[in-house]
From TrEMBL:
Organism: Sulfitobacter brevis
Keyword Magnesium part of the UniProt annotation: yes
One Pfam family hit: Inositol_P
Protein name as annotated: Histidinol-phosphatase, inositol monophosphatase family
Signal peptide: none
Cofactor(s) recorded in Swiss-Prot or TrEMBL: Mg(2+)
PANTHER family linked: 3'(2'),5'-BISPHOSPHATE NUCLEOTIDASE, PHOSPHATASE
Amino acid sequence: MINLSDALRFSSEVADEAGRMALRYFRKPLTVELKADESPVTAVDREVEALLRSRIIQAYPDHGIYGEEEAPMNLDSPYVWVIDPIDGTKSFITGHPLFGGLMALLQGGEPCLGQIDMPATGERWSGLRGEPSTLNGSPCTTSDCRDLSAAFVYTTDPFLFAGPKKHGVFKALKEQARLIRYGGDCYNYGMLASGLCDLVVETGLEPYDYLPVVQIVRGAGGVITDWHGMPLGIGSNGDVLAAATPELHAQMLDHFHQLQANEAA
């Protein structure tokens, strides 16, 4: 049985090392390649992931690893680390400081530890099952917003809301929310956990984008699921709803349900 407090200390130490590596290349000339899905990647993404993998294998040789840049390994293990070496590569290659390093530990497929590390801003959110989430070691909590009309909302890329259902979601956010802002990637969930925004709605994400933030949102008092209200796992479809309160989360699920009903009519 793993000691989760030890695992969190380990993830923090590894994040220190990975963050220093990323910053050595930040705002320096980089060669940018395009992957098969046309998302950008650099040698820095690959080097940081290689570092994370080597440290995990050294410390926890029996654990699985699911990362962005290399093939998954040992996913039948009871414990699996999910890692994103640089979440927000588009920000990283354009000199924008809101890129982060993400780590999660899954136990039986369920996130029990999560970490958002922002090397350029010096902020780190951590979440551990059964404990309050923290920002740089101090407890953080979500806001008490319960209604979309009062909500500050973030989504990273509005262009991803394609098709009638997803366009309807975006239209509802734009028309009904108090304020909607764009960009941010993983930073948005840190803002949510710290009570600075109230709702994060994303689509088209991968497990290494959303699993590391699950325990952080939960431990701060928020609710995070897919758009059907189901728990997030490696097999989820990449549609993510994170809300500051159960009431705001339920209201958004009602919006999704109504949009589905209208689409089916």
